[in-house]
Amino acid sequence: xxxxxxxxxxxxxxxxxxxxxxxxxxxxxxxxxxxxxxxxxxxxxxxxxxxxxxxxxxxxxxxxxxxxxxxxxxxxxxxxxxxxxxxxxxxxxxxxxxxxxxxxxxxxxxxxxxxxxxxxxxxxxxxxxxxxxxxxxxxxxxxxxxxxxxxxxxxxxxxxxxxxxxxxxxxxxxxxxxxxxxxxxxxxxxxxxxxxxxxxxxxxxxxxxxxxxxxxxxxxxxxxxxxxxxxxxxxxxxxxxxxxxxxxxxxxxxxxxxxxxxxxxxxxxxxxxxxxxxxxxxxxxxxxxxxxxxxxxxxxxxxxxxxxxxxxxxxxxxxxxxxxxxxxxxxxxxxxxxx
Amino acid sequence: xxxxxxxxxxxxxxxxxxxxxxxxxxxxxxxxxxxxxxxxxxxxxxxxxxxxxxxxxxxxxxxxxxxxxxxxxxxxxxxxxxxxxxxxxxxxxxxxxxxxxxxxxxxxxxxxxxxxxxxxxxxxxxxxxxxxxxxxxxxxxxxxxxxxxxxxxxxxxxxxxxxxxxxxxxxxxxxxxxxxxxxxxxxxxxxxxxxxxxxxxxxxxxxxxxxxxxxxxxxxxxxxxxxxxxxxxxxxxxxxxxxxxxxxxxxxxxxxxxxxxxxxxxxxxxxxxxxxxxxxxxxxxxxxxxxxxxxxxxxxxxxxxxxxxxxxxxxxxxxxxxxxxxxxxxxxxxxxxxx
Lengths: 339, 339
Prior knowledge:
2 copies of one chain form a homodimer.
Chain A: H1 5-21, H2 25-28, E1 34-37, H3 42-51, E2 57-59, H4 62-68, E3 74-77, E4 93-96, H5 102-105, E5 115-117, H6 124-139, H7 142-150, E6 166-170, H8 174-185, E7 189-193, E8 206-207, H9 212-216, E9 221-224, H10 238-243, E10 249-252, H11 261-269, E11 274-277, E12 297-299, H12 309-324
Parallel strand pairs in A: 1-2, 1-3, 3-4, 4-5, 6-7, 6-9, 7-8, 9-10, 10-11, 11-12
Helix pairs in contact in A: 3-12, 6-8
């Protein structure tokens, strides 16, 4: 543990220095060492964690994180570089700063005794607003009316309505439930799909993972909010896409690899379906990908569930207090289940 | 009543002919004579009314209507020409084919003993979809993201969220209530305003007509769904507009004359407010009106609550059966209240 004296000394000094700045000195002495990793918000997170009285060091690059990882008991962060794991000798708990942990679970180097938690219940609202923004935009002639306005042209145009359309929500966790609540307010008919077929309030029927063909057969709108696991990878396959109705809308706010991208592309190029895609198998979406040029595809750069650093930090702090009190953590990931 | 023999004979022949085609002959003999007036859907309405077994004549122009009006006991229609009233000797009931009856109530020639009904509970859903289409469009970077897509550019952009915004719904009838239900699903804070301050489910507080300044002071979004009456004409006046917060959004899906248009224009030209306007004091909006050219104004041609002829005809038929059975009608207009 003290095998790399320079970095360790620096690390200890860092933690001591941050600890002395903490508001709650009693928490600091003997407090677990916290490493915060984020390419975009490390300092912001660290500031909030320290302001709450907990020592923490921030790293925005793999090199910075490598200096501190061997000392850290707790790692709070996002898109954590995999080269850290082999040095994470003292790690006990990883708090992902987002909802998806497929990258962590795909890495066999994270020891089984390291607890992993993810943020739940924070992204549903913004993601549901994203979904309804695009659904309404697709159904209503907003763009044509704006063009008519520029020409000073008064001409009513027909609109399609959400009321009565059938939406399938694949994934009925906290994100799916926010979608379902809004869909019901718009008087849509809503069905769900989850691992076990467990009942969900507000939906007419819930299908299991092995009932995809029946689930999608009659949908006007399919929204994917599933976690990416071995059971869900490419679950929206060529046969499932072929089962969907002509003119149906696919919205993916889950993970790109839920969908067989090549099969989806074929259906989109034939104009059979419309897609609103916020996530992709490769991100950023390569500049030469055909999705960019299709009028019936709406490409957005993985922004539907933006992290709000303040709220994510509050979530971490609530979990940290549970951790210190020996209580069960929020958002615990079941590695076998995959989320 | 038989003073104009030619038209009367024609009329009687028409009604007899239509009556013989009716499915329910017993209803036809002695059935009240029904005139249907609509510039756009007269034949469609008449077809549905006759298919239900009731004789009816259709008129799409004032001249056609004048031929039949003196015989008619029931007038079902929209934008009914005012020259009909002086000949409406046998008229007992007017069913407006829409929600707004301000044009009818403004006409003193309609005898007080003629009952007026309007369509309620049909336009709330589509109007609420219109409102949320534009609110989400204004808050989210849909257009900028589409432009980025055309450039194959992957760059997340910030979005504003509906959650937490404060919406004021002026008019808490069937349209207002549909809005309120959706606003609550989006976790907006909702307040209402109506004539009496009567409580409304789902809103935090309801203001009365004399509390406009307090009602609008803290709103992010003001939606007008009020009927046009002497009490509501130009109720959104210069001082009320001046009380609204910078950056607030005004959505008018009620009637154009609820707003002092000149005062609104000044606020919009200064960029203080954003407006989504589906109704105007003069419709069609004159081609030289400054609203057309303002980027912070969304002009749409009075389409937010489109009549669906089938549903409006069903509403009329339900009311017709009540009328024939001597039961109270749906959507009765209180002429003193003004809607």
